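Hi P.,

Sorry for the delay on this. The queue was packed all week, but I finally got your sequence through. Input first:
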Amino acid sequence: MERRGRGRLQPRNVSSRESTVSRTNRFASKPNSTPKSSSRVASGGEKAQNDGVDDPSDLPAIVGTCPLMCPERERAQRERLRDLAVFERLNGNPAQSSPDLAVKKFFRTISTKQVEASDVRPLPVLEDTLNYLLNLFDSREYPFEVVHDFLFDRTRSIKQDLSMQNIVNDKVIRMYEKMVKFHVISLHKLRRCSSQNTSSMNYLNKEQLAKTLTSLFNLYDANRDSKSTYENEAEFCSFYVLLHLGSNSQPMGESLSWWFRNVPSTLMKSKEICFSRKILRFFRIGNYNCFLSTVAAEASYLQYCILEPYVNEVRALAVSCINNGGYKLHPYPLANLSKLLMMTESDLESFCKACGLEICTNEEGYNLLPTKQTTFCHPKDGFQSYIFVGLEQFER
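Then the structure:
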């Protein structure tokens, strides 16, 4: 195990033990193997890993000694202040918790000069804490907004403790991979929440996704001892590319063209990167047919979680093109359009109405889309969620 101190990697012996908490399959990472090198993240991205902590290159690293998910001093203080999340309350009591329930909170500004080693959790405890949190991810006891708010804060606290200790090794990489997956899946789940404040939650989640992904790339580069790549690295690189689909989107403050120049050829040839580049190209040139068919044929669940909002954007482009390019006397059959857009016919009818278009029915009872309608528009509040035919297994 290694850590970085004052800008360089230094060896450090830390006791290791297997996590005693069962892992959620969707967050489990494959062991590292395979080949690459090069830095893909601009210098500004390095600060993302610190997450509210002073620059670790300027301060000595702490070796945490806290054996619990939450330091006893913090737990006692939060019990007095009744500052306990619903997951931390013992028997539902807002003023009482336990070492098995309380999890250390994230502090926005913190300095290693102000922190005691007994308040910082060592790596084995952080691993167990993360696994405990991710096992709450699919909880049905509370709305997902409540679950996400708790995990969002507590995973940031995990990153904060890791930053203060400057730990750089394979275990930390696997932890960051799991946290990236948490943010990616949350993009998908938050879109299905009915609460009005989910738009801000979704924005903050996407922002934290970009920062965590930046930190993961830095860890990949800092931890390799030769020209090698991690087995999951191509998948996470594809997330980076897909996050650039939006107009002028640069989630990590650098251009995608610069980033591509620094990606090793072994990764550029991977099926994950090839998929994301095709999707990016089809989206930017407006090739809706190839975009949707490629998503249906090749997208993984995690890639679809990022792509989902752009699917409806591409569908709207297709409907607009057919509406403007069709013959006024020849309405377009909804059955054909639903196959093109990978939608059920009932969803398509709702989608067209959301775009301000009317649907008609012919003498045989078939639904048609009259073309040359001048009322086409994008709904002000965005599109609702529609099933992607062929990827129904992702709609969970």
